[in-house]
Amino acid sequence: MAAGALTGAPALAVAPKTRPRAEADILEAGVREQGAAMAVGKLSAQALVGRYLARIAAIDQAGPRLNAVI
Questions:
Q1: Domain limits at 57?
Q2: Chain centroid offset of residue 43 CA
Q3: What angle (nearest 5°) sits at the alpha carbon of residue 16, between those of residues 10 and 22?
Q4: Is 8 a member of any domain?
Q5: What is the pLDDT at residue 5?
Q6: Distance CA 68, CA 7 (A)
Q7: Domain tally for the chain?
Q8: Is the dihedral of CA 37, 16, 61, 6 positive or negative?
Q9: Residue 2 lies in a domain
């Protein structure tokens, strides 16, 4: 954990292989991009929260053992 923090390498830089690129893009997008996707009907708040919860679950199961997701 400390080594990653000292090198400046993001701890979660690699997306899980099972996550489609489009899903990774919306999760990595800023709030303005997410809001724009919601405004045109491409994304709902419920779907976005579901994707974040799925990402947290995947990290909890296979990711670094930090006991937290930021």
A1: 20-70
A2: 15
A3: 95
A4: no
A5: 46
A6: 20
A7: 1
A8: negative
A9: no
How many Å apart are CA 34 and CA 48, to the nearest integer?
A: 8
| Contact indicator for 23, 51 with CB cutoff of 8 Å | yes
- Can you tell me the distance from the alpha carbon of 23 to that of 2, in angstroms, rounded to the nearest whole number? 29
Residue 11, in any domain of the structure: no
Sort 44 into a burial class: Cβ within 10 Å, 0-12 / 13-18 / 19+.
exposed
Write out the two tokens for 64.
């670094």
Instruction: Report pTM.
Output: 0.56
Q: Which of 8, 42, 16 is nearest to 29 (CA)?
A: 42
Mean pLDDT for back-to-back runs of 10 residues, the chain (70 residues): 45 49 79 94 94 87 68
Q: For residue 3, is it within any domain?
A: no
Q: Which two tokens stand for residue 69?
A: 């997701």
